Amino acid sequence: MSALSALPFLKPVHLRSPRSSPGGQRRHTLPASEFRCLSPEDAVSVFEIEREAFISVSGDCPLHLDEICHFLNLCPELSLGWFEEGRLVAFIIGSLWDQERLSQAALTLHKPQGSAVHIHVLAVHRTVRQQGKGSILMWRYLQYLRCLPFARRALLMCEDFLVPFYQKCGFEALGPCEVTVGDLAFVEMQHPVRGHAFMRRNSGC
């Protein structure tokens, strides 16, 4: 069984009825809104959104294109993209980590035996920001992680101004992160991933 078929909340969500041709016959259209794991073929679209979102703020991207390709080849199941009529509008990329706290190595490594999901980046396309899409995507991602038997918690690092956003998503601050990028310092945050048995019984996971 594929990960998608096992996770009903990742299946396409049709937000409006199919369009009709002038003659009144229905024609095929892409789903109005769809959530799915990313593939290496999505890497360029991911990087274009990320570059625009982060370079203007911090001068750099959490993941460069080669690193995006790296993680989407190694662990695509730990990513999630939001597509509207086939166009990527928001995404999350994660990998597994096997230590209590993040270290510099966590920026580039995927630890297959780990139980912590390191969320590297969440970004939303500039044309659909300020619509709550980041919060919705994070909620769906955390629900998805609850269906993965190896996932016990989610970890991320962010700048101070983003701490309130992630707190609203249910994350708690662990304190300063030992990871630095240039002159930037970060707060490390975590979210427990609970309820594996409940989710399996009640959502088809």
Automatic annotation (TrEMBL):
InterPro entries according to UniProt: Acyl_CoA_acyltransferase (IPR016181), GNAT_dom (IPR000182), SNAT-like (IPR051635)
Pull one GO CC term from this UniProt entry.
cytoplasm
Q: Which domain of life is it from?
A: Eukaryota
Q: What is its EC number?
A: 2.3.1.87
Q: Name one GO biological process term.
A: response to light stimulus
Give, as in the UniProt entry, the pathway in which the protein acts: Aromatic compound metabolism; melatonin biosynthesis; melatonin from serotonin: step 1/2
SUPFAM superfamilies xrefs: Acyl-CoA N-acyltransferases (Nat) (SSF55729)
Write out the annotated subcellular location.
Answer: Cytoplasm
Show the catalytic activity. a 2-arylethylamine + acetyl-CoA = an N-acetyl-2-arylethylamine + CoA + H(+)
Q: Which organism is it from?
A: Mohoua ochrocephala
Group of enzyme by EC:
transferase
This protein is called: Serotonin N-acetyltransferase
Q: Which CDD domains match?
A: NAT_SF
Q: Where is it mainly found?
A: cytoplasm
What keywords appear on the UniProt entry?
Answer: Acyltransferase, Biological rhythms, Cytoplasm, Melatonin biosynthesis, Phosphoprotein, Transferase
Please report the stretch or stretches of sequence annotated as the N-acetyltransferase domain: 33-194
The molecular function terms in GO held by this entry are: aralkylamine N-acetyltransferase activity
